[in-house]
Design a protein that fits this description.
Distance between the termini: 17 Å
CATH topology: Rossmann fold
Number of strands: 14
Number of domains: 1
Oligomer: single chain
Strand content: 15-25%
Mean pLDDT: 96
Structural class: alpha/beta
Shape: globular
Amino acid sequence: MRVLVTGAGGLVGRAVSKDCRTHGDEVFALDHQALDIASAELVERELERIQPDAVINCAAWTDVDGCERDHARAQAANADGPENLARASRTVDAVFVTISTDYVFDGEKDGFYTQDDEPNPKSIYGLVKLAGERQAQRANARTIVVRSGFIFGPGGRNFLSTVGERLRRQEQVSAIADAWGTPTYAIHLAARLRELVLLDLPGTYHVVNSGDGAAYDEFARAVGQELGKDQSLVQSVLSSALKRPAPRPRNSRLRCLISEARGLSPLPPWRDGIRQFLSPDRSSQTAT
């Protein structure tokens, strides 16, 4: 299978590229420098050149506060980009998968968000990611939208990915106690993205590790426990204390209503993902 991965320099893009290669796919891994998905002309040209069987879009501008300050850039990267890829995928007859976010929900619900829940984003980031879902689906009926969140993994620069390194150095870590999501290991997410390509059934899927979800401080303490570190290294703080420009959902835990019905087993528990992530032989892991 010929697979084009956009955003291949990022956390999920690297995991997807590695997983596809492990399965023997011919992978064309393009980072932002190689392909700016906001340019419809460049996207069309590259897909015509590569003629992929599948396009997996891992490209995004994920700076939530940056999106709040620069709506135009956010729209171009997170909404128009997926639409450009979806349209070009239709032209070359490729299945198109694009990653969306748990931030399309307002966070006011207790429990898990499913596909039955109406999106109601609170931030520009959430608004443009939702627009990206809809624009892509309008441009290409063969579009698979994957919502995920709280993603961590090798090479990640976000809090969830770096908290282990900080705790190993015996650093004090401040972690939010009043915002909950469903932690998702990038290696496990990558495996499911490829499974969805093979399934080739358009729709919206929620892809996260199984379990009840966690607040950031609970996740950090689980990492510390796995590393045998003193739990007092993790200090709980409230979201309001951070004074960030963009609002975030209080609760963005996800659950999928259709995956099992389509023969897809639940992903491993997120605590298993932590154990795998912290394992000394992590470099040999593949998304299988």
